[in-house]
Design a protein that fits this description.
- It is an enzyme of class 3 (hydrolase).
- Keywords: Chemotaxis, Hydrolase.
- Its EC number is 3.5.1.44.
- Probably deamidates glutamine residues to glutamate on methyl-accepting chemotaxis receptors (MCPs), playing an important role in chemotaxis.
- The protein has a single domain, classed as 60s Ribosomal Protein L30, Chain: A (2-Layer Sandwich), CATH 3.30.1330.
- Helix content is about 20%, strand content about 35%.
- It is built from two helices and ten strands; from the N terminus they run βββββαβαββββ.
- Strand 8 and strand 9 form a beta hairpin.
- The longest helix is centred in the last third of the chain and has 15 residues.
- The chain is globular, with a radius of gyration of 15 Å.
């Protein structure tokens, strides 16, 4: 049974909470975890996106799979429970290059493409990115705390940190 105040966000998923509580997701390799936080109300949201833009597919049945549609839906979910867009800030983690390739093609680096797309979309919505832990070649597990807006990041072989 899931703790009411510690909510798990799956892959290609998003959740929002009111203070107090925590949101967490596991398995961020090339995926990006996007935490949004209203600094006044402490309403928080976390999305776990897998791909940069929904335009790459015709049948976009899961909007949380993509940075463009996932971030927009997450903002809407937060506003529905009282967040104010002008008070929302963001933190991101993930976007790793999990597999090495002898051919250095940008299309193969989905992690970097996810990070770039995430930043573009946040910028389009005028949401400041205040901290990030992205890139590298290792996975991450993150937990976002609605009390203080801190993101806890745990990695294998690269320790833990707060941003």
């Amino acid at each position: 049974m899931e703790d009411f105040n510690n909510i798990r966000v799956g892959m290609a998923d998003a959740k929002v909470i009111k203070y107090p509580g925590k949101l967490h997701t596991i398995g961020l390799g090339s995926c990006v975890g996007i935490a949004l936080y209203d600094v006044d109300t402490k309403i928080s949201g976390l999305a776990h996106i897998m791909l940069p833009f929904s335009s790459i597919t015709v049948h976009n049945t899961n909007k949380f799979k993509f940075a463009d549609t996932g971030i927009e839906m997450l903002i809407n979910m937060m506003e529905e429970i009282g967040a104010k867009r002008k008070k929302i800030v963001s933190k991101i983690a993930g976007g790793a290059q999990m597999f090495s390739s002898k051919v250095n093609l940008d299309i193969m680096n989905i992690g970097n493409r996810n990070v770039v797309a995430t930043k573009e979309v946040l910028n389009e919505f005028n949401i400041p990115l205040i901290s990030e832990d992205t890139g590298g070649n290792y996975g991450r597990t993150i937990e976002f705390n609605s009390n203080d807006g801190k993101m806890f990041i745990k990695t294998i072989g690269h320790g833990i940190k707060f941003i």
